[in-house]
Amino acid sequence: MRVEAPIKVDRKTKRLAKRLTGKEIAVINHIDIDEVAANSLVEGKVKLVINASPSISGRYPNKGPGILTEKNILIVDNIGEELFHELSEGQIIEVIDGKIYRDGELLGEGEVLGKKEVDIRLKKAYENLSVELDRFIDNTIDYAKKEKGFILGEIEIPKVSTNYANKHVLIVVRGQDYKQDLSTILSYIEEMKPILVGVDGGADALLEFGYTPDVIVGDMDSVSDEALKKAKEIIVHAYTDGRAPGLKRVQDLGLDAIVFPAPGTSEDIAMLIAYEYKAELIVALGTHSNMIDFLEKGRKGMASTFLVRLKIGSKLIDAKGVNLLYRSKLKMKYIGALIATALFPVLILISFTPSAQQFIHLMQLKLRFLLQM
Question: Does Transmembrane helix appear among the keywords (predicted)?
Fold first, then answer.
């Protein structure tokens, strides 16, 4: 294996991905490369990835390295901090079988990860998953006890100018399969005209599809200046002690922002705001909802997410993976028969209980997802 190219260097993979122009070597310091980071490197058309940290530590089966090697992008792994600091942006380096040269001088080396090596490491990671799951559950329970005030009214919800009352709200996170899921529900967006909320980079996901975010929520570390300038309202997620590092960036752009100190993730507070201000329905897209998602974000538990979803209940619909339904090859006659069978008992229920109206409304939305109406 021999690769020679200029390098782009950054500790934050998502920052580096924005600067990629194609055919470069990406030098990162990213333990357990996650799916979103890997996809951003693939989209940047990198020739090679050099990682200062272990790309698969073995704690859990992270998907990022597999995505890279499936696209024939090799990883020179775990080169260490010292060599990472030795490499500077714009330098041209030569990599031969994991050895890194600059102007003919050997700087150091790492282990080359291809498909075979990644598969071996992932197998070991799967064997460790039960241990990690036990830790994850314990942490989730411990933090849920500490953060229960998050949903019990002990945290003040800031006043916002956006009118959520009796409206649908689409909350977009630039997470797994966000492009496919957004493509799938375009007809829903056009018909229902929901309030569009972008969580950090989710705002740019909306821009990619030609939509302007009504609200941006987040710590402002992965959203573009363009999105911030176009949004109608900005809510900066702050630490519980009030510190809001992302506020300065917004103010430097000459923009106003609301600060919301709260535990948990930015997508959690986006949902909570919509709920507290009486949104009729909340549709979550690309959000993090399982253990692997949270481990990839470096979180040891999902207490706030569990609590928020517990509070929101039936008002929340998760659009993650809905695109897979559209790719199924069910014949329309079978779908029609299924709908007819399902509607019959529902129609009977309507004559007995007014609460069934909400159930009908939720079913109608799910049918739109299924039929892409």
Answer: yes
Dump strand ranges (E) for the chain.
2-10, 25-28, 48-51, 75-77, 92-96, 99-102, 105-109, 111-113, 168-173, 195-199, 215-218, 233-238, 258-261, 281-285, 316-318
d(CA 305, CA 267): 8
For the entire predicted model, the pTM comes to 0.64
Per-residue pLDDT reduced to its tens digit, 252-295: 999 999 999 988 789 889 999 999 999 999 998 987 666 566 66
Q: 233: which strand partners? A: 215
Query: In the chain, where are the structural domains located?
Result: 2-125, 146-326, 332-371
Is residue 287 a contact partner of residue 170, using CB atoms and an 8 Å limit? Answer: no
CA atoms within 13 Å, Cβ hemisphere of 48 = 26
**CATH topology of 2-125 equal to that of 146-326?**
no
At the topology level of CATH, where does 146-326 sit? Rossmann fold (3.40.50)
